[in-house]
Structures are given as structure tokens and as C-alpha cells.
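TEACHING EXERCISE
Course module: macromolecular assemblies
Task: Read the component lines below, then compare them to the predicted structure of the full complex.
Student: A.B.
Group: 4
Components provided:
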Amino acid sequence: MVQFTLPAGSSPVKGNDHKNETGASNLRKFHVYRYDPDVGGNPQIDTFELDLDTCGPMVLDAMIKIKDEIDATLTFRRSCREGVCGSCSFNIDGVNTLACTKPIAEIKGDVKIYPLPHMPVIKDLVCDLNQPYAQYAAVEPWIKADTPPPNRERLQSPEERAKLDGLWECILCFCCQTSCPSYWWNGDRFYGSAVLLQADRWVQDSRDEAKGERLSELNDSYKLFRCHTIMNCTAACPKSLNPGQSVAHLKAEIAKRE
Amino acid sequence: MDMRSHLGRARGPGSTDNGVEHWISERFSAIALAPLSLWFIYSALGFAGADYATFQAWQSQPGNVILMILFLLAMFQHGQLGLTVVFEDYIQPVWLKNISVAIVKYTALLFCVACIFSVLRVAFTA
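Instructor-supplied answer key:
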């Protein structure tokens, strides 16, 4: 059966409380999920009190400040700090988003930072993304064409190119993918919204010659059709893309062949 | 212990080639149910306080028999499709999932045939 409750040893317990005793007035509490596989036991929620007057505006700035000045063992992925690499995706204030583009000022009260939901946690805020990466590889996200390549690039009309807008911008942060209850329950078989948006990106590409093959592979009651139009994906996307529309487009393309 | 690669697991046994039939059938039955449900509710409300003879006379008219049978077919089809998805979503063991889905489908068929038989019996024994 589907697990509606956390497995034994997974419920977070109260952790360390790092108070700010500098006398600063603009304080904000950050509750951060911590789990160390070397120590084992239940994960814990550590609380860090930060002076926002000496901290950058984004949640990632606060996390880097914690790591630099309070607890160097805090582990998380981050790289570009401008919403392009997709590394710093976490569940912040109850919503999956990128820490680098989420202003602290947008969050009322304490800031809660958890790993992406329903993914195996490797350490602290780093979760195992092998499954979605493998699903991404399974949709073969590259151009497939039997026509010999021309001497220059394969041509595309401006209208054909415009169809890829809203698709190519995906940075594979998996905020959408891991916000989907259908992916939580059947992530081993359902490809998930980010991967399906990428599949749609190649189905829509006029230069690709494997549309039929791609659609046949997706005509599966789990890989594609486990999407129940919940639309958490579109609500969560920090790049304001619409994975739900891509999934709907794939379903319609398959239905049109019938 | 599952020692397959992540890619091997993602690809699994390949496509079932049948996802879209369920999806289309769900939508067609939903579209059919929209007017048929309104017709059914409107008709049923009209029988408040009426006796059996009144209902039988109404149910014997060919148009009403046809619409009632269509309503039953669409309703049971849509219902069993929806319940199948719920079981597929929430039951992980394959054997239990398949048995549950089979029970849903055959139970829906049984009740649908029984209902249609009742409609015809009322219609032709007037």
C-alpha cells in the first residue's frame, strides 16, 4: 500500500537551537531539516536565528550565511545563485522552489527549509535524484533524425522555433516533479512532470524525426497517464513554466493518432 | 534486492501501449454523463409523490428507455474507470492491484446488466 505516514526513523525531531546573541534587532528564525547518515537516528529540525540586516535578501543567502558563520556541516546543493542551474531546489515555507530566487521578505514568520518531498535524503537538504535523472535519460532527450545532417544547421521556421518557448527554459530543478502526489505514490513508473515537459520539448521540435516512436513509448498507463491534472507542477515551477500543459499536449498528441 | 541500473528501472518493461484508451473513454463517458445526468435528475424529481403506474408509463416510452440505458452505460463505465485509477494509484502489490481492478470491473458489469434488465422489464411489462 501507499505509505501515508513517514517510515520508522523518518519523523523529524527537535534539534539544536542556535540563538543570535549579538543584540541585533532584525532577527528571523530559520528551521532547517538536518539528517546525517553517519550518525543515524531520526532527522532533526535545527533552528538558526539570523540578523537580516547582515544577510543577503534571498533564502540561499541565509543558508550560505548559516554554513559560513554558524554550522559548516550544513549540507545543500547550490551553484549559480541566479535561478539558472536548478541546484538549490528545496521545500521552502511549504512550497518547492529555488532558494536563490526566493526572497526572505516574501515569507511570513519563521522560514522552514526542508528537502524536496518524498525523495530519499542523502544528507541534510541533499536528496537522491538518480530516479528522475534516469527517467530523463529514458525519454532520450536529444534530436533523433535519419535524414543525413546538412552542411550547416538543421533549419527551422520562426513559427516552429516558437513552439519550443516555454519548454527549453526548464532547468531540471525537479520542483514540479517532487510536488506531484502522483509522483510520490508511483514515481517508480510515472515519469513525472519535469521529464514529461522535456519529452514534449522533443515531440514539438520540428527537426526531430522520432515523434511517433516517442509518443508510442509514452502511451503507457503509468509513464504518462498517471498524471491526474493535479497541477501542483505548474504552481510550483520557479521558472513560471507550465509542465501541466506539456503533459496535456502529449496526451492530446497520442489521442489524435487513435 | 534490486540491482538494476536506474535507467533499467526507469525504462522497465516498456510501454503498455494502452494508456490513451482509458483516458479517451473517461472523457467520452464524462461528456455523455453531463446531459444524461441532468435529464435523469430532472426526470426523477418529476416523480416526487407519483405512484408506480405513472413511473411505469413514463419508463415504457421508447425515448426514456433508450436514454435510461445510455445513462446507465455511461455511469457504470465512468465509475469503473475512475475506481480503477484509484486502485492503481494506491495499491502497490501487483497481484492485489490486479484482483481489485478485476473485482471493480466485473462488479460494475454485473450491476450495469442488472439495471438494464430492470429497465427493460419495467418497460415491457406495462
